[in-house]
Design goal:
Its main location: nucleus. The chain is 54% helix and 10% strand. With 325 residues, the protein is an alpha+beta fold. The chain has two domains: 96 residues, Roll (SH3 type barrels), CATH 2.30.30; 167 residues, Orthogonal Bundle (Enzyme I, Chain A, domain 2), CATH 1.10.274. A hairpin with a 2-residue loop joins strand 2 and strand 3.
């Protein structure tokens, strides 16, 4: 939603207007259900018809709460994304919603800027292939470009639904703020680094389950490999590249230098990366479970694994950042 990467397109104005009118009618019909829930359950953080920010496919969008329902000892909210066809309406948990405040709107913009920067970086790094046959007509070239773009898009149903806990989402927003707005950097090398964190997770799992399957260790090994390959390609801001060049030399693995801050960025990209991988459905289901457990482990140890603030770079690094900005 919101970018060509997800393969979704905005509706025309007439469709949007009719959706909004239908949405309001649905809300009026469901108000009683919300009031009944409020009288018999803990109060909801969000109410019917409230304007909110909803997290979807890596970023926040303006949305409206259509219905609130208390079920299974937790609140759920049926939301409509403002300006989008109501086929995208969905049920979400409290962890995917933010109050529509000025502070949260700024966080939304910061996260959007970060994603834009990542897309631009990826585009710059993509190999520029020139057509061998210069006689190809412009019309045919446009058609071929369009077909190639469609092939690159990953259908939503094929994406692994990795729900990043709300406190870790905030970590991502703060991460973007430190780098892009305050011109700070993560001080390297990090302790614990990505390799240390993966090892700690295996130790944690073995204590909880003496017969810990070998697959857990294999998944952690695979995660480190993904991280080492993805870091220079799609996980760095432009202002971090010189630091990467200085830190990663002589065959050093990024997973032994970088820490949780950059590892968490990988989880934003993982759904798309896994969708392109040739993995059997059964294996993918097990992998999804392990990754969700790993995210909870990161959340549980957030204060120990993540920096609360980044450092102001030295003169040489600062000059690089100024040039990049």
């Amino acid at each position: 939603m919101g970018s060509s990467d997800t393969g979704l397109n905005n509706d025309d104005d007439s469709a949007t207007v009719s959706d909004d009118s239908n949405t309001e009618t649905d809300s009026d019909m469901r108000t009683e259900t919300y009031e009944e829930c409020q009288s018999s359950h803990p109060p909801s953080v969000f109410v019917n018809d409230e304007k909110v920010l909803a997290f979807h496919s890596g970023q926040y969008y303006e949305a409206k709460v259509i219905r609130a329902l208390y079920e299974g000892n937790k609140w759920g909210f049926f939301v409509h994304y403002t300006g989008w066809n109501k086929t995208w309406d969905e049920w979400v948990g409290t962890d995917r919603l933010l109050k529509h405040t000025e502070e949260n709107v700024q966080k939304q913009k910061a996260l959007k800027e970060r994603l834009e920067m990542e897309r631009k970086t990826k585009a710059v790094q993509a190999p520029q292939m020139k057509p061998k046959n210069s006689g190809v007509s412009r019309g045919r070239k446009r058609k071929n470009d369009s077909l190639n773009k469609e092939k690159d898009l990953v259908p939503l149903e094929k994406l692994v639904n990795l729900q990043i806990p709300s406190t870790l989402k905030k970590q991502l927003v703060d991460d973007c703020e430190f780098i892009t707005h305050q011109s700070k950097l993560v001080k390297l090398p990090r302790t614990p680094n990505v390799q240390d964190i993966c090892t700690k997770y295996c130790e944690y799992r073995s204590k909880k389950d003496v017969m810990m399957p070998e697959s857990t260790a294999e998944i952690m090994k695979g995660l480190r490999c993904y991280f080492d390959k993805a870091l220079p390609a799609m996980l760095l801001y432009k202002s971090e590249r010189q630091q990467y060049t200085n830190a990663i030399r002589d065959g050093i693995s990024p997973s032994t230098v970088y820490g949780a801050e950059h590892l968490l960025r990988l989880f934003v990209k993982l759904p798309e990366l896994l969708a392109h991988a040739n993995i059997e459905e059964e294996t993918l289901t097990e992998l999804h479970q392990k990754l969700v457990h790993f995210l909870r482990f990161l959340q549980k140890n957030q204060s120990a694994f993540f920096l609360s603030t980044y450092h102001v770079p030295e003169d040489s690094e600062a000059n690089t950042i100024k040039q990049d900005h």
